[in-house]
Design brief:
The protein is of the alpha+beta class and 200 residues long. The protein contains five helices and nine strands. The C terminus is likely disordered.
Length: 200
């Protein structure tokens, strides 16, 4: 893999209590280790390394690495922040993109999946009647269902929601594409995170 490709790969970030809180690029992970803001972890042994001792580690044959003029540096797959001990918010931010994700690009009235261009955001309690733009009041609706509902409540238009709209339970910081999960992360991250697809 090209050096630029390796640098854009993902590294798991742990807070000072060894709880997974984010992912970042390998490039940024190395910067954090170099400045002392983080330590690199060897997932197989849980050894913690500063930049100097990390660059002293031998690179195994076939192992991804960053090559400089004088060094071959192992790719840090997991880093530990040296000062930060916070945790990310457990709830996702209410955005159009996240709403499409929560509802699976599916009309919440008839269940069709016509494509994002034929879906719109419907306020279950219309805004004209005091409805808010929130997780609990917004759903995806196809053009046909949205026109049929208009400025009414679902039952007034003889429509029924497939499920009650709720705040999603995923952690937006740790949403990791399944194709980019490293096996070494399994020691640090709960299985529940592997079911998500959005990446920060």
């Amino acid at each position: 893999m090209e050096a630029t490709g390796v640098l854009s790969e993902r590294t798991l970030v742990l807070n000072r209590s060894w709880s997974a809180i984010a992912t970042t690029t390998v490039k940024n992970a190395l910067r954090l280790v170099y400045t002392g803001a983080a330590k690199a972890i060897r997932p197989d042994t849980y050894e913690v390394h500063g930049f100097e001792s990390w660059t002293d580690l031998a690179v195994q044959s076939g192992e991804p690495c960053i090559r400089t003029v004088a060094l071959k540096i192992r790719v840090p797959e997991v880093i530990l922040l040296t000062r930060y001990n916070g945790m990310p918010s457990p709830s996702a931010v209410f955005t159009r993109r996240n709403l499409y994700k929560r509802d699976g690009n599916t009309c919440q009235y008839c269940g069709v999946r016509p494509g994002t261009h034929e879906l719109s955001i419907d306020h279950v309690l219309p805004r004209s009647r005091g409805g808010l733009s929130s997780w609990e009041n917004c759903v995806l609706a196809c053009v046909r269902c949205n026109r049929r509902k208009g400025d009414r409540l679902p039952h007034e238009a003889n429509l029924k929601l497939l499920s009650r709209p709720r705040v999603p339970k995923w952690n937006p910081i740790l949403e990791i594409s399944l194709g980019r999960v490293r096996s070494s992360w399994e020691k640090f991250v709960s299985d529940s995170y592997w079911n998500t697809t959005l990446e920060p």
